[in-house]
Fold:
Amino acid sequence: MSFDIQGKLHEIFAENQVSDKFRKREFVLEIPDGSYTQYAKFQLTQDKCSLLDQFQKGQEVKVSFNLSGKPFVKNGETLYFTNLQAWRLEAANAGGGNFGGAPASAPAQAQAPTFYSSEADNDLPF
Structure:
């Protein structure tokens, strides 16, 4: 499932070489949500780690990401992990970073986040 969301870069972490063949880099996006602010951590992997190099904390960005989740059994207990796997970042302002070829629009100010799915509506009850 692919989604887009816009927010402010709250935290950018250093690249982490997990193994000989796997590296990742994480960042936190600050997302206004009415009177509350949400903080969502995203992950970039492999060659996508360098996408963050052109951005700074505090900058407004649009993130394209996939949502994935997996169960993990430990000591007989099933735990669930959710991952927000980013695959594209672009500046949210109209002045730069428009990588997708679509016209850029001005960022929404203090509005709830809007998620867009590239797939047809599913049967989720919410």
About this structure: The mean pLDDT is 80.
